Amino acid sequence: MDLNVSDELNDLLKDNGFRIEEIQDIIENAESSGKKLKNAEGEVFIAKGVSDNLTTYAVYSPLSNGAFELKTAYAHKMNVAGLTGGSFVEVEYDDDSGWICHNCNETAVDRNVDMAYLDVSRPGPGIVCPKCGDVYISEGVTKTLKTAESILEEKRA
User: Fold this and answer.
1) Element (DSSP H or E) covering residue 149
2) Residues 106, 88: contact at Cβ < 8 Å?
3) Which of helix, strand or coil describes residue 44?
4) Mean pLDDT score across all residues of the chain
5) pLDDT tens profile 81-90
6) Of 40, 47, 61, 149, which has the highest C-beta tally within 10 A?
7) End-to-end alpha-carbon separation of the chain, Å?
C-alpha cells in the first residue's frame, strides 16, 4: 500500500510510538472490510485498529492514483464497552456527528459510551453508528482521555 505521510506528521507518529506499518494495516483492514467512518463528502475516512490495550485511529483520504494520504493518527488505552445504557434509543436531540458509517450508510451520532481503564469505568462522548453500533472516539476526546489515563496510572503506582 502506498501511504503518503508528510514529514511533520511522520515526526509526530514517531514521537508518539506509531509505526507506519501499523497505520497501513489499519487502513488496509478498513478498506477491505468497509468498517470505517466517512465524512459527508466521502473524502476523509476514520479507521480504527483495536488491540488488547490500545485503540489506534487513522484519519486518511484516498488519492486519485490509488494511494492514500494520512491526515493524522491518534490512540487511547480506554476499553470502549459500548453505549451507555446498553442499547441505542432514538432521542429528539440527536447531534449529527458529521460522519457516516461506511458499511451501513447511516449518519453516526454523538452519544455517551462506557469506557474503562484500570478498573475505573465512566461514560464519555463517542461517535456511534445507530444501525451497527460501531463506536469511534474523536481526536479531541482522545486528548482528554490521555490525561485521564495518566491520572489513573499515577494513582495506581
Assistant:
1) helix 139-156
2) no
3) coil
4) 89
5) 887 766 555 5
6) 47
7) 41
The cell numbers describing 56, all together, are 489506534
DSSP string for residues in 52-87: SS-EEEEEEEE-TTS-EEEEEEEEE--EEEEETTSS
CB 104 within 8 A of CB 137: no
pTM of this prediction?
0.89
- Which class for 21: exposed (0-12), middle (13-18), buried (19 or more C-beta within 10 A)? exposed
DSSP category for residue 70: E
Q: Which residues pair with 3 in a beta bridge?
A: 68
User: How does DSSP classify residue 50?
Assistant: E
DSSP 7: H
Virtual torsion, Cα 22, 149, 125, 138, nearest 10 deg: -30
Cell numbers of 118, please?
484500570
pLDDT beyond 80 at 157: no
Over the stretch 33-49, which tens digit does the pLDDT of each residue have? 999 999 988 899 999 99
Q: Kindly give the pairing relationship between strand 37-39 and strand 55-62.
A: unpaired
pLDDT for residue 155 is more than 70: yes
Spatial CA neighbour of 45 closest among 33, 30, 66: 30
